[in-house]
Design brief:
The chain is an alpha/beta fold. It has one domain: Glucose Oxidase, domain 1. 37% of the residues lie in helices and 24% in strands. The chain contains seven helices and twelve strands. Helix 6 runs antiparallel to helix 7. The radius of gyration is 19 Å and the shape is elongated. The two termini are 35 Å apart.
Length: 218
């Protein structure tokens, strides 16, 4: 296992609240995607390096061109990544059953979109992690297509670059700048161990104020 995969596995064992607390302590307060972007089910979670995509509505798009450009994206998404999509659209579904299955088979860890999804029951049955704003049966055919792969995207004031780390769980989605990845994951691990010790102290009856002063977290 290479260092990158090991770091992703360590991040996957963290939770978004602890990662945010570390980001905040480092002065990186604006790394949480809008709270409307949620997993299809609370149990859905994923972590990995981002692969970014953005697209746009296009009035003169043919059905063939839509599907050609969409399948080019499916082919380009690298194994082990979490796709982050800024569709620049809030009317259509930007993920569906066959695409989710394709990405899963190709080793993609998950899909986060500032837009919509459809075929949610099928996707949940596959166990492929999808985080989205809304559900709709309206697909992209003849209306929308990817316009750029791998370039930085903005979602709710958060800039995400290909290679940045992403953790998505029941509480939301956090993005970690790649250059801070190792430091933030390590600090989150330390924080979680400290929280576990604090939790044991509280369960044992220690006064909350004294426990906070002892452990420095709450």
């Amino acid at each position: 296992m290479n260092e990158g995969n090991l770091l992703v596995d360590r991040l996957a064992a963290c939770y978004s609240g602890a990662v945010y607390d570390v980001l905040r302590a480092m002065g990186l307060r604006d790394q949480v995607l809008p709270h409307e972007i949620r997993g299809l089910r609370r149990e859905v979670r994923t972590a990995g390096p981002a692969f970014t995509m953005q697209g746009a509505l296009q009035a003169d798009l043919s059905e063939h061109e839509t599907l050609l450009r969409w399948t080019e994206f499916l082919s380009a998404a690298p194994s082990g990544s979490v796709v982050i999509c800024q569709p620049n659209d809030d009317t259509l579904a930007h993920m569906g059953e066959l695409s989710a299955e394709t990405l899963q088979v190709r080793g993609i860890r998950g899909y986060v979109v500032d837009g919509g999804c459809r075929d949610s029951d099928f996707i949940l049955g596959r166990g492929f992690p999808v985080f989205c704003r809304y559900l709709t049966p309206k697909d992209i055919v003849g209306r929308w297509a990817p316009t750029e792969l791998g370039a930085p995207v903005g979602i709710g004031g958060v800039t995400i670059r290909t290679g940045d780390l992403v953790l998505a769980d029941a509480d939301g989605v956090v993005a970690i700048p790649a250059e801070h990845g190792e430091k933030i994951v390590e600090a989150a691990e330390v924080l979680m161990r400290t929280e576990s010790a604090l939790r044991r102290a509280l369960v044992a009856g220690e006064d909350p104020r004294e426990a906070y002063l002892s452990y420095g977290v709450f």
